[in-house]
Amino acid sequence: MIDELKSLGVSISIDYFGAGMSSLSYLKQFPVDVLKLDPGLISNLPRDHEDAAIVSAIIRLASDLHIKVVA
């Protein structure tokens, strides 16, 4: 069904990526176009070095997979 929607021009986004039930395996299972980062990950940037490392890794991964990132 997702492939049919994509063929119609619908973009697939994952909201709140990096929190709760979001999983890296979704990036392989689904034809994702956009990752919308969890606000909790970006609210403490640049003060929280751990959050900065996680966000940086997500951005690099998304770039390699040709996925847009929204923060």
Write a brief structural summary:
By secondary structure, this protein is an alpha/beta fold.
Tell me about this structure.
The chain is α/β, with parallel strands linked by helices and 71 residues long. The model has no long low-confidence stretch (mean pLDDT 91). It has 4 helices and 3 strands. The longest helix has 16 residues, at 49-64. Strands 1-2-3 form a 3-stranded parallel beta sheet. The chain has helices at 2-7, 25-29, 39-42, 49-64, and strands spanning 13-17, 34-37, 68-70. The protein has one domain (2-70). Strand 1 (13-17), helix 2 and strand 2 (34-37) form a beta-alpha-beta unit.
Shape by Cα distribution: elongated
Derived from helix and strand composition plus strand pairing, the structural class reads: alpha/beta
Q: What's the number of structural domains? A: 1
**What Rg, in angstroms, do the CA atoms define?**
13 Å
Fraction of residues in β-strands: 15-25%
Helix content: 40-55%
Strand count: 3
The parts where pLDDT drops under 50 for at least 5 residues are none
The major pleated sheet works out as: 3 strands, parallel
Distance between the termini: 28 Å
Strand order of the largest sheet: 1-2-3
Order of helices and strands: HEHEHHE
